[in-house]
Amino acid sequence: MSASTLTSPAAQSSTRRDHEWAVAGTGMITSIGATSGEVFDALCAGRSGLAPLRGFDPKLFRAQHAYEMPEPTRTTGVDRPLRATDLLGRAISEAVADAGIGDDLSRVPVLIGTGLRELRSAELWWTEDAPMVPADLHFGTALRAMFGAATTYTFANACSASLYALGLGSDLLASGAADTVVVAGVDVITESMFGLLDRVHPEPVDAVRPFDRHRRGVLMGDGAAAVVLRAAGRGPVRARLRGVGLNCDAYHVTAPDPVGMIAAMREAYALAGVTPAEVDLVLAHGTGTLRNDEAEATALTEAFAGSAAPPLVTAVKSMTGHTSGSSGLMSLVVAIFSLATGLVPPTVGLVDPVEEADGLRFVIGDPARAGSRLAQVDAFGFGGVNAVAIVERGD
Amino acid sequence: MTMPTIQGTTATEDTARTGNPVVVGLGIAAGGLTAAADLLRVGPAVPEPGDRPLPDPAAFDPAPLIGGRGLRYKDRATRLALLAATYALEQAGLSGVEPDEATGVVVSSNFGNLDTVCRVARVIRAEGVRGTSPMDLPNASSNVIASSVAIKFGLRGPNLMVCNGATSGLDAMYWASVLIGSGRVRRVLAIGVETSNPTVGELVGTMFDGAAALVLETAESARDRGIEALATVGGYARRADAARAADAALRADGGPAGIGLLLADAGQAPPPGAGQADGRDLEALVGPCSGALGALQCLAAVAWLRAEGRGAALAVAGADADDGSAALVLRAAGGPR
């Protein structure tokens, strides 16, 4: 398999590598923590948010577990609309406070990547007659109420949505249209997506085991993440975003294609002006599905085939669940904390790596201590929408 | 630190530089509409909203017109988008046969997969997960339209699904332009689509059932391929209200001079300096069109600019009740303002 024929116009453009942008602040909330720091500490401690189903009636499903928000955010046996909107607001609030830009975003573009929008609210409207208006489906109305934001965008780009939004945010900064953008990702589990994934798994999934031979598939999680992205020279520098590769396999509506993944990785290296050998750490997409992990391991193996010292690889979905559209940005925030602290969370649940991952250096068991400078973050979604980011330590 | 393909506009806080791509292909797939110029008809094409039943989805079947295989499990929004895309790519001189890394896809739809999601949730409540069909899995993901278009035509550039409420269609045109202006791709197939079905009907009421597609391309690339530029994409802005969005988009584009067509809600006052513009409210013509509106407005604008041979059109979407408004300028290709 070769991706040598796949070269995007962006990858050919030598001028783009001069760009870099500061990640000035981060926010993150999941089943295992309500702030970026809490989530990162939990990940390093190997703590998982896996728990018996609370929000859905377990009798209706084969899978009996998920990575839902804990009480009181997610109440057992009952559900309420607009939980995604709520998580999104919290992640953005943390990020803008961390960046010190205040919570008036009336002049700041806000880009939201989501797999499932507020479709959970739509399900509650349709099945339980819960209140809903059409504008609830996207996040603009709430962002205007919470932050005065008017230049807001909801992108529904499956499981790479928030990393896609990050790439688009960097394009806005590069164009000069803005000097500060907020990029966020959010999803809460929908009954339809949880159920359909449950339906297609060969056997019921009890836990996410990224890249493990005995993985059964994916379980979803609730969560949101946010970053404040600024042109260089403005505010704190938690990390530097070097580039985001974006493409589409144009192959299959649900099955991944390693060729498209490799092309996205190579585009990210070209945009960042780095070689694969310079990458120290990979936050893999690692969903624990049979096909993603095989394809991603193949792609990573090929991408780093020439590296004398291949990077450390880890994946967090065994602790957060697959947080869908928010997962890419969540991995980015984890990468930023790993670059800053030198600690890399282990891939919990990974015992016996798949054959395709033979050459990859996974972090297994305890967190790794590593003085990393450059990290790669992967996010791949249904429809073959691939996004790969390169981020550099802030100091 | 300069972008290679950006030309023209001056950077200000309100200026979104997009490289000013040109429009090289148009497509429309909707019952009763066969060409972009149909959107310039005066008076409603259908009975007045309020006294008509929901359009019968069976009245216009895009499937036989699309060609090829693999449509069986595609939802209606995807089928409509595929047909509009077929027409637009054909006009743009793109075969859609060879894999193409230089073309991206941006699709706008707010309600495209709402019916699938709601139906599956109800089936699960009634029968459990065993009652569901695996064939519904792709359609439960909101980006299924954009990715299905990419798969059908081998378009491997960035693939983006915009679900951004009333402004979504114009926003999609803008992000298509950003993808081109940033140098990621030379071309973007941009589509706006909505469908009418009982679920959408219950949530929203009457809804346009159809798709509109445009191919945007750098002027240089279109010239190199010998493809005629139909119009040029100009300034854009998204703001808290329609007046501010229009003002910012016009400022990004050099002011209101030459605006001869205003595509906006009939209640929307023309922006200062554009009072003489011919005003058209497409939703009065074809009914509420949500995420498809911006693409339909762009088709109407291109048809108008082609007929006039000069000038510019301003499209505005999003009213006071919405979370924001967007405005986009299109100019006659190569002609004077």
Global outline of chain B = globular
Q: Which strands sit side by side, in order, in the main sheet of chain B?
A: 3-2-4-5-1-6-10-9-7-8
Q: Residue-averaged pLDDT of chain A, rounded?
A: 94
Cα-to-Cα separation, first versus last residue of chain B: 31 Å
Question: pLDDT below 50 for ≥5 consecutive residues: which ranges of chain A?
Answer: 1-17
Strand order, sheet with most strands of chain A: 5-4-6-7-1-8-15-14-9-10-12
**What would you call the quaternary organization?**
heterodimer
Instruction: Enumerate the spans of chain B where pLDDT stays under 50 for 5 or more consecutive residues.
Output: 1-16, 45-55
Structural class of chain B: alpha/beta
Rg of chain B (C-alpha, Å): 19 Å
Helix content of chain B: 25-40%
Extended strand count of chain B: 10
Summarize the structure.
Chain A has 395 residues and is of the alpha/beta class. Chain A contains eleven helices and 15 strands.
Topology:
The complex is a heterodimer of chains A (395) and B (337).
Chain A lengths: L8 H4 L8 E10 L5 H9 L6 E2 L12 E2 L16 H17 L10 E5 L4 H10 L11 H8 L4 E5 L4 H15 L4 E8 L3 H10 L22 E9 L7 E10 L9 H15 L8 E3 L6 H14 L8 E3 L2 H4 L6 H15 L1 E2 L16 E2 L5 E2 L4 E8 L3 E9 L2
Parallel strand pairs in A: 4-5, 4-6, 9-10, 9-14, 10-12
Antiparallel strand pairs in A: 1-7, 1-8, 2-3, 6-7, 8-15, 11-13, 14-15
Helix pairs in contact in A: 2-11, 6-11, 8-9
Chain B lengths: L21 E9 L32 H4 L9 H16 L11 E6 L5 H14 L16 H10 L5 E4 L5 H14 L5 E8 L3 H6 L6 E8 L1 H7 L5 E9 L2 H11 L6 E5 L14 E3 L1 H5 L6 H16 L3 E6 L7 E8 L5
Parallel strand pairs in B: 2-3, 2-4, 7-8, 7-9
Antiparallel strand pairs in B: 1-5, 1-6, 4-5, 6-10, 9-10
